[in-house]
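C-alpha cells as discussed.
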C-alpha cells in the first residue's frame, strides 16, 4: 500500500527487462566513467539545472542520497531484474551488494563516506552500514524487517522497522506496524509520530533533527520533522496538495541547514501513471518550492545536501525510471 513508488517503478523496470531480454547490455564493473553514461543531459532554463543519469546498462536508476562533497548513493536494477546499491564518486560508479543478499539498495551517505541501506533475503529486509569497506548488519531488536535510511557525521543512523507479523518493509499488512528508529551509540530508540498508525524515519542531520513520514488515522500521509533534544514533532504538508508524500515513496531528504526534500500529489488521481500528478518539493527557510524534471511524467526528490543540491528519480514518457541531480 504505502510503497507504491518502489513497487510500481520496479515493475516498470522488470517490464523493460522482459522487452529487452534478447539484448546484451555491456554493463561495466565498478568505476565506470561518468562520461560513459552521461550525467549527460543537463537541462537548464532560468534557475536550477537538472541533470539526468543512469547506471550503465541498467533498466532502472534512482538517486537517493548525497553528501556535502557531491557523492551520490542510490539503487539500480540490472538487465536480469536484480536490485543493487551503488556509489557514484568523482564520476565513477561502484556497485554495492551486501554479501549473501539477493539484492539491495543504498540509501544514505555521510561526509565521511559511511553508507547505509538495506539488503534482501527473500521477502525479509535488513539494514546495513558500510564503513571503511566493512559491512555491518543492522536489525532493530525483535523486528521482522529493518531499513537503514540516513546517517549523520557522528554516525547516528535513522531508519525504519516493522514489528509483529510483517513480511514486507511497510506497515499495515498482516497486523504489522511500521516505526521509525534512531540508532545512536549502539542504542536503538523507537520513533512514532503521536497518534500515527505508521511512522518512518528517513534522515538525521548533525543538529539532532530527523525527517520522515507518518500516516494519520484518516489514512493520509504527511512529512514530519522531529527535533530530538526537545522531542518536538512538526507536521509538514505541501500547500494545496491532495496527498503529501502519500504512498509513493519511502524516502526524503534533510540537510544541516534544516532544508527538507520530498514529494506531493496535486491530483485527485495520484497514480504514477497519471502524468503531471506527482512532484518533488524543497522546503527551505519556511518557503516551499515545487520541482519537476523537465519533460518528466512524475518526479520525486529523495536527498539534499548542505549546498542545496537535490537527487531523486523521475519517470519519462516511455515509463523508464532515471536518476536526476538538481543544482541550485
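Sequence:
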Amino acid at each position: 500500500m504505502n510503497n507504491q513508488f518502489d513497487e510500481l517503478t520496479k515493475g516498470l523496470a522488470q517490464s523493460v527487462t522482459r522487452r529487452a531480454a534478447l539484448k546484451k547490455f555491456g554493463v561495466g564493473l565498478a568505476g565506470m566513467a561518468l562520461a560513459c553514461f552521461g550525467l549527460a543531459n543537463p537541462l537548464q532554463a532560468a534557475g536550477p539545472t537538472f541533470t539526468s543519469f543512469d547506471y550503465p546498462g541498467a533498466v532502472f536508476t534512482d538517486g537517493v542520497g548525497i553528501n556535502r562533497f557531491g557523492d551520490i548513493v542510490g539503487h539500480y536494477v540490472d538487465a536480469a531484474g536484480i536490485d543493487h546499491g551503488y556509489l557514484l564518486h568523482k564520476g565513477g560508479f561502484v556497485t554495492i551488494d551486501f554479501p549473501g543478499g539477493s539484492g539491495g539498495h543504498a540509501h544514505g551517505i555521510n561526509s565521511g563516506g559511511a553508507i547505509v541501506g538495506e539488503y534482501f533475503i527473500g521477502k525479509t529486509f535488513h539494514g546495513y552500514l558500510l564503513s571503511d569497506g566493512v559491512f555491518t548488519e543492522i536489525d532493530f531488536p525483535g523486528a521482522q524487517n529493518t531499513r537503514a535510511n540516513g546517517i549523520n557525521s557522528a554516525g547516528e543512523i535513522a531508519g525504519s522497522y516493522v514489528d509483529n507479523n510483517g513480511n514486507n518493509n511497510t506497515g499495515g499488512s498482516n497486523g504489522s506496524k511500521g516505526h521509525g528508529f534512531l540508532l545512536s551509540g549502539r542504542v536503538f530508540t523507537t520513533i512514532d509520530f503521536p497518534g500515527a498508525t505508521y511512522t518512518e524515519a528517513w534522515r538525521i542531520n548533525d543538529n539532532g533533527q530527523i525527517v520522515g513520514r507518518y500516516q494519520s488515522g484518516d489514512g493520509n500521509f504527511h512529512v514530519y520533522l522531529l527535533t530530538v533534544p526537545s522531542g518536538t514533532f512538526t507536521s509538514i504538508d505541501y500547500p494545496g496538495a491532495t496527498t503529501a508524500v502519500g504512498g509513493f515513496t519511502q524516502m526524503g531528504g534533510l540537510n544541516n541547514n534544516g532544508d527538507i526534500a520530498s514529494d506531493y500529489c496535486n491530483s485527485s488521481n495520484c497514480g504514477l501513471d497519471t502524468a503531471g500528478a506527482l512532484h518533488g518539493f524543497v522546503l527551505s527557510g519556511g518557503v516551499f518550492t515545487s520541482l519537476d524534471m523537465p519533460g518528466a511524467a512524475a518526479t520525486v526528490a529523495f536527498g539534499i545536501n548542505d549546498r542545496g543540491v537535490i537527487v531523486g528519480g523521475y519517470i519519462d514518457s516511455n515509463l523508464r525510471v532515471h536518476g536526476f541531480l538538481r543544482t541550485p
